[in-house]
Amino acid sequence: MNITITKTSDSKLDSIDFDNIPLGRAFTDHMFICDYADGKWQNPRVTPLELIPTHPAAMALHYGQAIFEGMKSTLSRKREPLLFRPAENASRLNASARRMGMPEFPEDLFVEGLKALVAVEQGWIPPADGSALYLRPFMYADEPFIGMRAATSFKFIIIASPAGPFFSKPVKLWAEKNYIRAAAGGTGEAKAAGNYAAAIRPTEIAKSKGFDQVLWLDANEHTYIQEVGTMNIFFKINGQFITPNLDGSVLHGITRKSVIDLLKHKGYTVTERPITIQEIAEAAQNGNLEEAFGTGTAVGIAYIQEIGWGDDTIKVSETYPVGEAINDSLNAIKTGLEEDVFGWMMPATTKEFV
Ligand SMILES: Cc1ncc(COP(=O)(O)O)c(C=O)c1O
């Protein structure tokens, strides 16, 4: 499918101060958009970013057929825009689409759409170390209909937002015993908008108690660790790493997958298995819990300082040597400073779109 490109004559690029980017509030001049109607995706295009008229009965607003992805484009040393494992996001979007009864989006068009948008918005990638252009592909049901069934018309859109340098600071987690994020057979594995809606209130409660994020536990016993806010989680106990296995209730994080490879490459043993919060509390008490960190696109690696669990506080660590080394490696690979031995990076643009 040919992507048509219409450029704005009214760029806002000059108005953005790259030293002071309002996180999540600055948007580039264009978006990629594609419509699903009559059983097929059609009319892929890059257009000036604009409001989209929405019918009040649009099904996404009522029944929540809405999914999304999150990824970043970084600049290489030669100032060429790069994408990190975009095919993984394309495939995860389609896994989410299948779970939510939505049409799959052609994975090559997903990557081509990203490239076309990044090519047009190259000037928006902040140059400072640790900065990136955040890319948000998403799909929602725009058919106006009142009634419970899969919609028949959808939009797939990619918007972009410059993100300033992010410095990971240690975080405190609240192990949540009352609310849950996901149960087996539910939608936890999908990047469905509703999962995030359900997490807002518990996160507010955790913050009101002085914590940064919720540590989600399993739905049946409130015992098995699942993941954190918008991150997967790793623990280092007695020199070895463990992370919860993908049991159907945990998002298949692309950073998680990459960190497993990086840790193994650095000689560590990584085991994916069920992990109880009791086991982590005991390891901390016995002095065997050496490090813990979250992994996700937004922050890279977030070092975990402590975990509040009822009246107990599980003290994790004050130093994060392996977490920092992994964070440095990830950032260096993303900017071409470290050899991309895994073949994760892809040029974000092709001449055809510039
Ligand atoms: C619930 C949840 N878990 C984990 C992650 C980390 O996934 P990734 O590493 O692909 O960003 C995210 C972010 O997308 C998330 O929203």
TrEMBL record:
<dbReference type="InterPro" id="IPR036038">
    <property type="entry name" value="Aminotransferase-like"/>
</dbReference>
<protein>
    <recommendedName>
        <fullName>Branched-chain-amino-acid aminotransferase</fullName>
        <ecNumber>2.6.1.42</ecNumber>
    </recommendedName>
</protein>
<dbReference type="InterPro" id="IPR043131">
    <property type="entry name" value="BCAT-like_N"/>
</dbReference>
<dbReference type="GO" id="GO:0052654">
    <property type="term" value="F:L-leucine-2-oxoglutarate transaminase activity"/>
</dbReference>
<keyword id="KW-0100">Branched-chain amino acid biosynthesis</keyword>
<dbReference type="GO" id="GO:0009099">
    <property type="term" value="P:L-valine biosynthetic process"/>
</dbReference>
<dbReference type="InterPro" id="IPR001544">
    <property type="entry name" value="Aminotrans_IV"/>
</dbReference>
<keyword id="KW-0028">Amino-acid biosynthesis</keyword>
<dbReference type="GO" id="GO:0009098">
    <property type="term" value="P:L-leucine biosynthetic process"/>
</dbReference>
<dbReference type="InterPro" id="IPR005786">
    <property type="entry name" value="B_amino_transII"/>
</dbReference>
<dbReference type="InterPro" id="IPR033939">
    <property type="entry name" value="BCAT_family"/>
</dbReference>
<dbReference type="Pfam" id="PF01063">
    <property type="entry name" value="Aminotran_4"/>
</dbReference>
<feature type="modified residue" description="N6-(pyridoxal phosphate)lysine">
    <location>
        <position position="191"/>
    </location>
</feature>
<comment type="function">
    <text>Acts on leucine, isoleucine and valine.</text>
</comment>
<comment type="similarity">
    <text>Belongs to the class-IV pyridoxal-phosphate-dependent aminotransferase family.</text>
</comment>
<keyword id="KW-0663">Pyridoxal phosphate</keyword>
<dbReference type="GO" id="GO:0009097">
    <property type="term" value="P:isoleucine biosynthetic process"/>
</dbReference>
<comment type="pathway">
    <text>Amino-acid biosynthesis; L-valine biosynthesis; L-valine from pyruvate: step 4/4.</text>
</comment>
<dbReference type="GO" id="GO:0052655">
    <property type="term" value="F:L-valine-2-oxoglutarate transaminase activity"/>
</dbReference>
<keyword id="KW-0032">Aminotransferase</keyword>
<dbReference type="InterPro" id="IPR043132">
    <property type="entry name" value="BCAT-like_C"/>
</dbReference>
<dbReference type="GO" id="GO:0052656">
    <property type="term" value="F:L-isoleucine-2-oxoglutarate transaminase activity"/>
</dbReference>
<dbReference type="InterPro" id="IPR018300">
    <property type="entry name" value="Aminotrans_IV_CS"/>
</dbReference>
<comment type="pathway">
    <text>Amino-acid biosynthesis; L-leucine biosynthesis; L-leucine from 3-methyl-2-oxobutanoate: step 4/4.</text>
</comment>
<keyword id="KW-0808">Transferase</keyword>
